[in-house]
Amino acid sequence: MRWLVGWSSTAAGAPEIGSAGAVGHDGETLHPVGSHLLWGDPDPLWAVGDWRPDEVRVVKADAQTRIAVLGICGATDEQLRVGLFAARGGALRHLTAWPGSYTAVVQVGRRITVCGDLAGARPVFYTPWSGGTAYATAALPLADLIEANLDYGHLAALLAAPDVPAAVYDSTPYDGVRRIPPGHALILRAGAREIAGYEQVASLAVAAPSADPDSAVDAVRDALVEAVRARLSAPRHVPGADIDPGPVPGMGPAERRAARGMPVAGIGADLSGGPASGTLALLAAGLPGMPGTVLGHGTGAGERLLAVTFNDLAVGGREAELERAGTLAANPRLHHVVVTGGEETLPYSELDGPLTDEPAQSLVTAARHRARLAAGSADHFTGYGARQVLDAHPARLADLLMDRKRRHLVRPVAALTRADGSVLVPARVYGAARRLARTPYRTGLEVLADRLMQRRFDDPGGAVGASLAALTWGRPGPAARWLTGEALAEVSVRLQGATHRSGVGPGQRPGDFRARAALTRSATDLRVLDQAAEIRFQRLHAPFLDNQVVRACRTLPEALRVQPGARAAILRTVLEGAGVADLPPGWGAPSHASSAAAARTGLRVAADSLMALFGNPLLAQAGLVEARVVRKALRAGAEGEALPLDGLADLVSLEIWLQRLLARRGTCWTGTPARARAVPAGITPQRGALGAGAAARRA
Questions:
Q1: 129 half-sphere exposure, CB direction, 13 A CA radius
Q2: Number of folded domains in the chain?
Q3: Is residue 132 part of a domain?
Q4: CA distances from 467 to 159, 434, 542 (A)
Q5: Residue 661 domain-assigned?
Q6: What are the φ/ψ torsions at residue 377 (nearest 5 degrees)?
Q7: Which residues contact 504 (CB under 8 A, 6 or more apart)?
Q8: What average pLDDT does the segment 381-404 reach?
Q9: pTM, rounded to two decimals
Q10: Model confidence pLDDT, tens digit, residues 499-542
């Protein structure tokens, strides 16, 4: 894990600062473990973890005006200086408009500004501390700093309504640690905090001006090319070159690298056969910059990009995608590697692993991804996020009705009709879209809160059922049916409390709002996956989640998005504009059946270990579930009953995360007593605690 952490204190209550940090209550000096001080008193900032030298840049205008950029940023030092001067005058958007994926921190006197990203892949957290505010790009260091306990209401919301931002609001799994929303910045002035948005959102009252589809797609192409070029222009790294123990009898350099679990030097990409990963692989291989192996290492060619394809031997169904991947890999600028995986790479196959900052569903598939990434390069492109930034959420049909663009509903509704075979589909879809367009946000949350209290969990069937279920402001999560009544009541109270906040409402159209929420959840899942499946010295790159790419994708007209096959068509146009025209037949065809089959097979193979996991689960001690109910559901899912597999994955991943959190004995800070870590007392039986918290909130 890599993060930055710092704090801002009031002038009157500022902690006494030593040479390496603040002096705590017992006279000890506090500073993060494994940290590098970027600047010191009175508002220090550290970079923590295995940052590369080129990933941390600090540009100063004077002693009290400076900017730190951590991550991959395509801006020059002069552009950083211009952005610093703009931020000094209050213009924050300039700090988020450079190619790449990074976090920018600006200090102007005693004012500190920390910018989050638009997708949520690089979040910012904060907590009150020592008369001021501590902030970080990870929640766990702040939880250790204040010895935070678990926020059981937040954990309940993750299971009951994971796609509804109002349920989790700004909370985290740690009580007292807060998160700023995507598209916002944290501004600290001598300890006092303010959260300011730097991005405009679509208005509910006035329709956005209609964008030209061709120019919008061109903007997506330009943003993607710049995102890829920012990675290609960064310095290359040879993994573990300074720690190679030297020759080993019977082992060459490649075997020694594989034995240490290190990636190949240079740049590579996933090549699954799908349109997102294929687009990035072809762009990276075609742009100038010699994206292959580092000169003087490996083959010495320096121009071939390592393309990695995962072939699941335990579950079939992806033969067509594998064939397309092989056709794409025939490009002479690609070096194709196929990684095979059997039952040992199925979901749920590995329940041990590193502790991540937060829980996410990707914890149950980490071993599957690690097997693929272990064969990858030091800098590895992935297509994560493409579906969320390019596809149309079904709720966007309501946005089209609000803008009086009914004719654009014809093709998507016709596609659903063909999939279902019923002549009633158009009327059902149109009726659901019209109801959503006429339903206020407050009413939508009240309906969802009532559904949770009444335990009404309808199973959507097929593509039409899923689309109809998505045509709401929010719906119960797939794991909600297995939660206790107290946990559901807590989430219901959270939703009702959201309707009483000042300025209730997202300020956006329902489809745009639901799409942004889905993007945030996907970005969070990728962030956790990066930590859970981390390969030493490797960097995962997800250009589709870069700020500039997200912005460009948001300019795509909704009428273009909702058309069947829009994502593949957009990416095909992007590649054609970049000079890549020869794509295999069937490129861009969707494939989801194999993922569900792998989850079902993994559940069956790992049934015994999952039963042991939920023998005396921490989730039950926290009052969120009843152990026997979950064991029954796992047994039924393993036997092939039609249950929401995503819900079971949510339960298992949260239980795994809780067990890893409580098993740790260290802390993110030196100079603190041994007790200074998150959840110091563990989980005590919480039966009734959730209901008590809900009652307190009502009062």
A1: 30
A2: 1
A3: yes
A4: 21, 14, 27
A5: no
A6: -100, 175
A7: 441, 442, 498
A8: 92
A9: 0.92
A10: 776 455 666 789 999 999 999 999 999 999 999 999 988 999 99
